[in-house]
Amino acid sequence: MFDKLIYIFHEAVLNLKRHSEAQLISVGSAFITLLIVGIFLLVVLNANKTMNALESKVEIVVFLKDDLDEIDITSIIDKMKTMEAIESYVFVSKDAALKEFKKDKALASFFDAAESNPLPASFKLKVKPQYRDSNKLSAIASELSKVYGIEEVKYLKDEVEKILHIAQIARTGILVLTALVFISAVFIVANTTRLALYARREEIKTMKLLGATNWFIRLPFIIEGMLSGLIGGIAAIVILFIASSLGLKEINSFLGMKILVFNITIVWIILGFGTGLGILGSSLAIGRFLKA
Amino acid sequence: MIEFLHTSKVYPNGVEAVRDLTFTIKQGEEVFITGPAGAGKTTIFKLLIKDESPTGGTIMFGGASLNSLPDKEIPYIRRKFGVVFQDLKLLPDRTVEDNISFVLHAIGISYSQRKEKITRILSLFGFENKYSLLPKELSAGEKQKLAFARALSTEPEVLLIDEPFSHLEVASAWELLQLFCFDSLHKRTVVVITQDREIARKSGRRVIELKAGQIITNV
After folding, report:
1. Is A64 helix (H, G, I), strand (E, B) or coil?
2. The dihedral of CA A259, A265, A268, A269: what is its sign?
3. Which of A78, A272, B19, B46 could lock onto B51 through a cystine, CB 3.0 to 4.6 A?
4. What integer pLDDT is reported at residue B187 of this predicted model?
5. Spatial CA neighbour of B164 closest among B67, B53, B75, B86
6. β B214-218/B206-211 pair status
7. Radius of gyration (C-alpha) of chain B in whole angstroms
8. pTM above 0.80, yes or no
9. Which of A10, A209, A219 to mutate: most B Cβ within 10 Å?
10. For residue B75, which residues of chain A lie inside 8 Å, CB to CB?
């Protein structure tokens, strides 16, 4: 077994050397494909980050009655703590609400003229991601409105629905694009590998005629494909790293926001994808020659 | 050991390569199959190593039918044959040593046994100082010797040699056959396919002569 494993890896590495020109094409195709995948990945991760940021803006505001004492407020907090959907809450006292409103100069004179503070105390609630849809938000609002001491529960229904709708469309689009990019990548690498293997079809046929099993022939080719994918992946990572190091600062300052930087997750995804791509591409390609 | 029973082969393009062939080759027999180009010799060769399947009749090997052999069993049947192909089919990117090592590895010979067998067979064929040469660096005669060495390295039950006289002078090829292939001691079955009827007749062995896909003499 160990002898076979050594043979398979030894053959794969030797084949990389023996067929260096063909390998250059395979590695090149893996590199370009993985570079595109890497750029796409950066876009997807950034888009996802933006979607999460958008969704996290979804909040429920719970306005309290004016005559509540500390015990009443504590019992409202206790109730909110028992609700699975609520991720976090912030208490905004009457004074804090007034202070916030007074920041607007037009409103400040209006509130200065008033004899007392007309603003109610409130809680601003964030809900967990899985509860961020219109029906669930409505159910949460309805449950809260029944709690003693709560005057009114509000959330921006139309805006929330719009945000969630946009996020859903964007996510579906990303999913479809990811599938397309993945299929194209496999197709490109499998075809390039097939072209490279075409030159070796006689060698493969001879191996079969000499009594080698399909797996004995197939495994070194698969490892060879895996190594090509890995090398292509490393090259793509290096280029992406250099490009992101040089370009991200300028992009960030241009956009006025910090977008996702090149990180270790992307490295692992590209390496994993490159390896998988090489294995899948070479398996598909060699399969055709072994059948022939 | 080898039986062709009313065997026929019609290729997809309609060419009928062999028709209703019936003959038996016993274990340890040394047989020449001869005939002009297009007589069906190469088809017999391909049918034996399951590179082609018959369209009619049956081929038996060691008492079992090759016709109904499942695909996954084919490599194991091929290992019983040591084959010298007409175009030699040496692995071009592998050294002399690796050409032998590959086939030994493919049939599951362990590392230590492989080393021993390689040393023995390459010494026997005079390749002591040529382990690391590629086939393209060998002369025509050396290439043929390497093909013979590879075929014999697995100690096969049947040695199948296709057109051994096409690469070498008759005397040299004959010497190779005499020295390494015909081996009455081990009772190895040897099948030599050649277009040269004179050599076959002078060999002193059994000759199966074909014409247009049929046997015309079997003596």
Report:
1. strand
2. negative
3. B46
4. 76
5. B86
6. antiparallel
7. 17
8. no
9. A209
10. 208, 211-214
